[in-house]
Structure formats: C-alpha cells, structure tokens
Fold these 2 entries.
Entry 1:
Amino acid sequence: MRKNCMRILITGAHGLVGRALTEQFQSHTVFALGHRELDITDASAVNRVIHELQPEVTFNCAVIGVDDCEENPRLAEAVNVAGPAHLADAVRERGAAIVHFSTNYVFDGERGAARASDQPLEAAAARATAGNGCAVPNSGGRAGHRGGTSTRTGTAQSCPTKPSDFYTSDDEPRPVNVYGRTKLEGERAVVQRCERAFIVRTSWVFGEGKESFLSTVARRLASGERVKAICDIWASTTYVADLVRRVDEIVRTGPPATYHIVNDGVCSYAVFAREAARLTGADVSLIDQVTEAQMLRSPRPRCTPMRCLESERLGLAPMRPWTAALADFIAAG
Ligand SMILES: NC(=O)c1ccc[n+]([C@@H]2O[C@H](COP(=O)([O-])OP(=O)(O)OC[C@H]3O[C@@H](n4cnc5c(N)ncnc54)[C@H](OP(=O)(O)O)[C@@H]3O)[C@@H](O)[C@H]2O)c1
C-alpha cells in the first residue's frame, strides 16, 4: 500500500493508540470514530459505516481492558472477539485492509519468569537505565502470520532475561487471563476472515492521553507523590508515538502478517518508575515496590518481552530502547 492519501477508519479512536494514530495519519482522510460514534459489537452499524466511508485501511483500537475482562467475560467476548470479526467481514467485502491491535498477554510469560524474578531489582534497574537494550538483529524464515524457524544473535546483557525469552510470532500463544484469551480469539477471527489482515501485538504502551501507571508515573513522582510499583512482572514497553510511526511504515511497505511492535529492552513497572524518577530528578524513595499479588489484580503473565521477526525480515530499523523513548515522552510533557 504505497498511497499518499488513503481513506482511513479508526475504531476506538479516543483511546491511547487511537488518538496517536489519528495524529500520525493526519495527512490522510481519517474517520476517527469513538465508542459513541461506532460500537463495533453492532454488526449492522459496522457494515453501514464501512459501506458509507469506504475506508482502504481500518485500524481497530477498540478494546476491553484486563481487569474489566475478568469482571465481565461476556462483554470481553463481544468487544475483543465479535467486534473485530464484524469489522473483518465488512472490510473483506470491500477488498480493503484491516490493522488489528493485540497484546503480549496472548503469551503465558513463563519462559523467562524464573530468571526475571531471580534478578535483584537494583541490578536490573541499573542495566535498564544504561539505555543499551536488547538489540536483536538477524533472522530467517517465511513471511506471514506464523513464520518459520529463526536464529537470534543479539545479546541481552542489559536485560534480566535471555534472548530466547523474547516471544516472536513463531511462538505458540497460551493466554493466562480472559483478556489474553479474548485478544487471541480476536486475532484469529480477523485473520480467518480477511486476507489483508495486519495483526500488531504491542505491550505496556505509554503516552499522552491515558491515566495509566506508565503514562502518569513520571508526572506523579516529579510532583512528589508516592507511587506503588509492581516489581515482579516484566515485559517490553512501548511509547505510543514510536508504535504508530512503525505501524505507518508497516502499512505502507509490509505484507499482511503478525508484527510485534515494542521498544527495545525489557522492564518491570518498578524499573520503569525508577527510570522515570532518574529522568525527572525525582526522589526514588517515593517508589514503594509491591508484588502483583499485593495489588490484588487479575492474573498477568510474568515475563513477556517480545521481538519482531517480520520487521527484521523487512529490514526495518530496530526500535529504539524504551529508556530513550521515555526520555522523549517526559521532555514532550
Ligand atoms: N495500552 C496498552 O498498554 C496496550 C498494551 C498491549 C496492547 N494494547 C492494544 O492496543 C489497542 C488499543 O489500546 P488502547 O490502550 O488505546 O486502549 P484504550 O485507551 O482503553 O482505548 C480503547 C477504546 O476502545 C473503546 N471501546 C470500548 N468498547 C468499544 C466498542 N464496543 N466499540 C467501540 N469502541 C469501544 C473505548 O471507549 P470507551 O472508553 O468510551 O468505552 C476506548 O476509547 C487494543 O487492541 C489493546 O489490546 C494496548
């Protein structure tokens, strides 16, 4: 898809990723519809909108979050599985493309969990703030939603995990919660229905426009607020501005496939908070480390860093380290 001006539909457009996409594609004709303008669980509304607007690319950002999924599994099925299926059906009839966002939480996170939890937090934080994340060059295999086998030559000296702990699109998903299960089913529904389906799995996204821990911790620490930061789950993290830039590149140049789009490196929430404190000059003793169990939330996979075989095959530049991305986010605020 190499067009200067495309007709683009964004669903769930008023959330974190939807807003960033709207800005990224502002030179195109963008129809950015929030929940009130289009409920993706309503098949006839989806058909009508796609028929009227005739988008060449539809970005589906509508989602029900992790804790809400556990509380309301039926709504989770409707929004995370049935909704994407309706979109994919309507998009296919027009011969158009769909970009469906998904998550690291399709994986169980057990592969690197023991190593990650063995790491003393101080040491891991020091390595994370060194800014030399887990660069991962080189791979082989066929393109598509499930690639072939690959080799990996990068090192993970700055990570509490080994290179082999990083999940690729070759790895079998094994979700541990309702969110992960419904997101995986949503991916499959889209791929089964639409030939021109791009699945973009991302992880721990931060940026302007969401009151999440990752998006607000720097501001909260800088204002002297105490924060609780979970120290025993680990993942890749992603600056939303970097995510949408890479998605733009992929939609213009890449084949339909499953992509893992995250910044380089891996962190826990506590490591992320410590880096935010360092960058803002805040007092690190404002951070109270807690375990996931102490926060009494629904279960999350323990360690789900990701790397993108498909981007490597396309020869796209590695995503920058999350520490550099966080520094930019803080500077922009
Ligand atoms: N944020 C992350 O850390 C993260 C990590 C991994 C993957 N992802 C993926 O990235 C995508 C976008 O996430 P996000 O962070 O931008 O989510 P978000 O900020 O929570 O936005 C999701 C939007 O979806 C809307 N929505 C909910 N039900 C809907 C429905 N039935 N029809 C239409 N819209 C509906 C919500 O509107 P209301 O609030 O008005 O209901 C909300 O504006 C999702 O696929 C998610 O799985 C996000």
Entry 2:
Amino acid sequence: MVQPPLVSQLNSTSVPEDFKTEALNLQDSNQNAILQNTILNYDLVIVGGGIVGATLAVALEGSGLTVLIVEAQKKAEAIAKGQAYAIHLSSSRIWDALGVWAAIEPQVQEFKQVHLSDGTDHHVVQFMPQDLGQDLGLSSLGHVAEHRVLLSALLDRVQRCKNIHWCCPARVAQTKVQGDYTELTVESLDAEAISDNPPFTVRSRLVIGADGAKSQVREQVGIKTRGKAYWQSCLVATIQPEKAHRNIAYERFWPSGPFAILPVSETHCRIVWTAPHAEAQRLQALNEQDFSVALTERYGTQMGQLTLVGDRFTFPAKLVHSCEYVRPRVALVGDAAHSCHPVGGQGLNLGVRDAAALAQILRTAQIQGEDIGSLAVLKRYQRWRRTQNILALSFTDILNRMFSNQILPLVVVRRLGLRLMSMIPWIKVTSLRFMAGLLGKAPLLLPPTPSK
Ligand SMILES: Cc1cc2nc3c(=O)[nH]c(=O)nc-3n(C[C@H](O)[C@H](O)[C@H](O)COP(=O)(O)OP(=O)(O)OC[C@H]3O[C@@H](n4cnc5c(N)ncnc54)[C@H](O)[C@@H]3O)c2cc1C
C-alpha cells in the first residue's frame, strides 16, 4: 500500500526521542495543515494500546504490515493503572517468543502452588508445577505481574518496531467501513493542545478494536454483545502478610463469592475479594484497621496479621461476550471481544492469546497475498478464538455460580468435585492445563505442550 510522505514524517521528524506517543502533538502549523488535508494510509489500525493491543502490535513486527496504534491515554497514565494480574504460562510463553519476557520476568513473582478450596469445607486441592506434566520440568505454575511492568515492557518493545506508529492521547471518533478499506476519524484527546491537533482521517485495510470492555469500535460498527452483570463486585487491594507467602496462590470459594490471594512481590500479596455489591462497598469504606480485621476473618491466620498497603479498588463483575468478533475490515481482541468474572484470572490471558492468534492469521494471509481485512481471513480468527473463549467464559461463570451459593445438592456436588480432583490425576491435570491456557489450539508463538 502506498504511504503518503506524512507517515514517515510522523515517525521521523515529529516524534520525540523517548516515545512515539506524542506523534500527533505537532507544534508545526504546516504539519497540522498537512494532517488536516491528508488521508493517512496504514494496513492496520489498532484502537487501544493496552496490554492486548500492544501485544498484537509487537506480534506483527516484521510482517510487512504498517500499523498505527491509537490510544486514548498518555503513556504515563496508561502505565500507572494500579492493577495486577495472574499471568498464565500461555501468556509468558507468548511474550517470551516476542522478546519481552526477559524485561518482565525480573519484576514479577512466581506462584509455585495453587490452593483451591471451598470456604465452608476443610478439603484443599493443591496444584503443583509437576501436575502440569513432569516432562515440562516447570518450577512454577505462573506469575503475578503488575500492569505497569507488563505495559512498560511492551511499549518499550513497540518503540523499537519500525512498522508501528503510535498516536496518543487520541480516540477514533468514527469508523466507516467502505468496501476495501475502513475510514477512521481520529481526534486528539489532549485538552491542552486540542486546537493544535485537528481531527484527521486514516484509511486502513483493517481496524482492530483492542479498546477494552466498553469498546467504541465494537459500538461504532454495530456488533452486539450478550452477557450479564453479576450480583457481585470485586475488591482488589495490596496487603503485606506478617508471614512469608511461600509463593502460594489461594483461591477460596465462599457463598458470597471467590476470594483470592496472589503473591505479587517477595513481601506483598494482591487480594481479589468478591462479595455482593453492598458488602463490597462496606468493605471499601472500612477504615484500614477494621478492614484488616475483616480480612483476617475472611482468610484466616495462616499468614499472620494481614496489613493493607495503599488503596482499595472495587469493580462490578460482568460477563460480556461479543456476538461476532469480526466484520469485513474489523476484528475485536481482548476485553473488546469478551470480559469475564475475575475468578481464575482468565481475562487478560485470553486477550493475549487472541492477539497471538490474530497476528499469526494476518501474517500468514499477508505472505499468501490475501486481503488481511477480508471476511474470509478474519473468520479464521473468529473460528479459532471464539470457541476457546466461550469455554473459558463458561468455566468462570459456572465456577462462580457453583460455589457462590448454599443450595445443598450443589454443595454436595462441588465438595465431591474437589475431592475427585485431588484423587484422580487426569481430572487435576486437565483442569490445571485448561486454567493455564495450555489446552486447545495454540498460536505458533506458543510452543505446544508435550502430552502426558
Ligand atoms: C478485579 C479484576 C481482576 C482481574 N484479574 C485478572 C487476572 O488476574 N488475570 C487476568 O488475565 N485478567 C484479570 N482481569 C481481567 C483483565 O483486567 C482484563 O481482561 C484486561 O485488562 C483486558 O485488557 P485489554 O488490553 O483487552 O483492555 P484494557 O486493559 O481495557 O485496555 C484497553 C485500552 O484501550 C484504550 N482505549 C479505550 N477506549 C479507547 C478509544 N475509544 N480510543 C483509543 N483507545 C481507547 C484504553 O485507554 C486502554 O489502554 C481482572 C479484571 C478485574 C476487574
């Protein structure tokens, strides 16, 4: 595809040394005039430069495709999100293949065991690395990583990709699909420099919505969603336990919702405490001392005194699934395509696999001379990822519903289920591989797991 000269100007003359994000903050009024009157051409526009969007962009390095990322937040704001995630082996392997894991690994914490239990029962299912298969020689089941660590490493990597341009803070105000291209109107969101940055038009063969659960791309192209709001909210916080966490992640199911503790550093843990909305609000409003007391009541005293560190955040739990992942010239990845209950830490990991799968399909299509925005190509991605995501979304939904109640037959079934999991190795191994994202068709970036 022929690029107008402005594309290289964006990359070379107006991009500050440290990062390409300020590419649109052009101070030169001549350049603004050019922008106003020029239609920029890219093969692909990724709307949303979060962890999933950035992973996709990096996975397209060297593909011969020109990529523009449009991100609503400035780099520093985007990185500052105080979230942390359980990272499955599937994601760390993808980032390893993309050359970013080496920068991430020293800053994350391993979990070497997962203890799963019903809060109203004493039985605990203990998952160990060898349960994933002795042949893999693994020493951990996964990692816990802070958002800032993951996004900084990915953005540093994006910065080194010659085929990627970055545009922020900006949003796509309009998406029009026009036969063999998509026309996007991009608006600056920089309140201080808005008059210097008039809206401009980008044409691309494909636009990808990586813009999160409230995806505007999805809305602009009229893709519907199905789902529900749970009766629960998730309270997340960082705590400092008195005793060492020993790299153990805990998921304990209570009738009010799952409660997870994940080791996030040598000395600190992250909690994800699911509770009915009103209860979550009450916990959020407690003073620090009363919160620590409530926390100890919920978790117990295995790790001694649990001290709250920093702020608490509460999120309403939702299940949202896009009815379609693709339309001609449009594809959705990550939370734009699906978002689920945080139990089992699936959401981001699914998005990373979406990104790797889509990159693989687009690279292959490009090599074979196919139109990357055609429905025929994009449907390969939908067929691959939608089924796998439905399984994972259903798994989180069933897990939450099975355990978040006191209906006697269900209590009996789940207690039996947990005991069977401990007793019958293949149930344990299959469940663990599923949770770690190692079952089902793997992207080429993710080496296949030898079967047991
Ligand atoms: C309490 C809680 C705990 C969780 N724990 C885990 C866990 O342990 N493991 C796990 O795998 N997942 C977890 N998740 C899910 C995880 O947070 C999401 O799945 C993940 O953040 C989705 O990433 P994303 O890049 O698709 O979307 P987002 O992180 O939402 O990123 C979207 C990006 O798009 C940008 N954007 C939005 N709109 C526009 C626009 N119009 N134009 C341009 N840019 C735009 C945003 O600024 C943002 O940078 C948890 C979720 C919650 C609520």
